[in-house]
């Protein structure tokens, strides 16, 4: 039987890759030093195969991107995409989002993307959802004063749940849409899951939650 490796443990392929940051705890408060430029840091949690974040990095060379993913084999796909595009403004963490405070300092991030996170449909699993209030309080502390969270999902119930959680955590909601692909949002970069669900005819839900000053 194949043993599943824990994120953060030693691993042959990922440990050799220069785009995957080893011992990310060492860069807490110093993430700017990892990049070749000073710029905003945008993080995607649950990056998956990386279509979204690598396209964003390509289109916005002045922004520094960090993709976080806990599944090694999936992360490898994202890393390969970034390498093919020869991107210099992106790195990846093979890491569990439950441990974000170990790697980022308060106010160090400007934007967090959560795209098509696992819905954990049963009520008793609510605390595992990446938009549950305890996660949101952590994100809020890591974001700078104007910091924002951008959220997309195909799951109506998760979207409703998340809107409620954003409000409970005193985040201001803006640009809410219940059908992103029919909305007038000018530029939308899709994820792999988004392409799959929209090809099935499902609407995509999206909103932005910003910190109040
Ligand atoms: C449903 S997939 C969506 C992938 C991608 N964002 C997309 O839209 O195509 C969710 C991803 O989040 C990752 N994930 C779930 N919980 C996580 C956590 N606590 N920390 C890091 N990654 C996580 C999963 O491994 C999976 O690759």
UniProtKB/TrEMBL annotation:
TM region(s), chain numbering: none
GO cellular component entries: tRNA methyltransferase complex
Single GO MF descriptor: tRNA (guanine(46)-N7)-methyltransferase activity
Positions annotated to bind S-adenosyl-L-methionine: 44, 69, 96, 118
Pathway: tRNA modification; N(7)-methylguanine-tRNA biosynthesis
Pfam families recorded: Methyltransf_4 (PF02390)
Gene3D superfamilies: Vaccinia Virus protein VP39 (3.40.50.150)
The keyword S-adenosyl-L-methionine is annotated on this UniProt entry: yes
EC number: 2.1.1.33
Family annotation (SUPFAM superfamilies): S-adenosyl-L-methionine-dependent methyltransferases
Positions with a binding annotation for substrate: 122, 154, 191-194
Catalytic activity: guanosine(46) in tRNA + S-adenosyl-L-methionine = N(7)-methylguanosine(46) in tRNA + S-adenosyl-L-homocysteine
UniProt cross-references to InterPro entries, sorted A to Z: SAM-dependent_MTases_sf, tRNA_(Gua-N-7)_MeTrfase_Trmb, tRNA_methyltr_TrmB_bact
Record keywords: Methyltransferase, S-adenosyl-L-methionine, Transferase, tRNA processing
Domain of life: Bacteria
Protein role: Catalyzes the formation of N(7)-methylguanine at position 46 (m7G46) in tRNA.
NCBIfam families per UniProt: PRK00121.2-2, tRNA (guanosine(46)-N7)-methyltransferase TrmB
Family note: Belongs to the class I-like SAM-binding methyltransferase superfamily. TrmB family.
Name of the protein: tRNA (guanine-N(7)-)-methyltransferase
The species this protein was found in: Geosporobacter subterraneus DSM 17957
Gene (UniProt): trmB
């Amino acid at each position: 039987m194949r043993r599943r490796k824990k994120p953060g443990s030693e691993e042959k392929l990922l440990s050799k890759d220069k785009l995957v940051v080893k011992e990310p705890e060492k860069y807490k408060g110093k993430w700017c030093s990892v990049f070749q430029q000073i710029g905003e840091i945008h993080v995607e949690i649950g990056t998956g195969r990386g279509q979204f974040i690598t396209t964003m990095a390509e289109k916005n060379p002045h922004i520094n991107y960090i993709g976080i993913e806990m599944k090694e084999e999936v992360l490898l796909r994202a890393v390969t995409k970034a390498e093919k595009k020869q991107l210099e403004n992106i790195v990846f963490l093979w890491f569990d989002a439950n441990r974000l405070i170990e790697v980022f300092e308060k106010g160090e991030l400007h934007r967090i993307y959560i795209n098509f996170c696992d819905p954990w449909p049963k009520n008793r699993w609510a605390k595992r959802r990446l938009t549950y209030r305890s996660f949101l309080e952590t994100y809020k502390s890591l974001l700078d004063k104007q910091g924002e969270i951008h959220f997309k999902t195909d799951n109506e119930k998760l979207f409703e749940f998340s809107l409620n959680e954003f409000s409970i955590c005193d985040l201001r909601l803006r640009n809410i849409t219940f059908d992103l692909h029919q909305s007038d949002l000018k530029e939308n970069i899709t994820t792999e899951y988004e392409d799959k669900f929209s090809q099935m005819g499902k609407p995509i839900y999206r909103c932005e939650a910003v910190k109040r000053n």
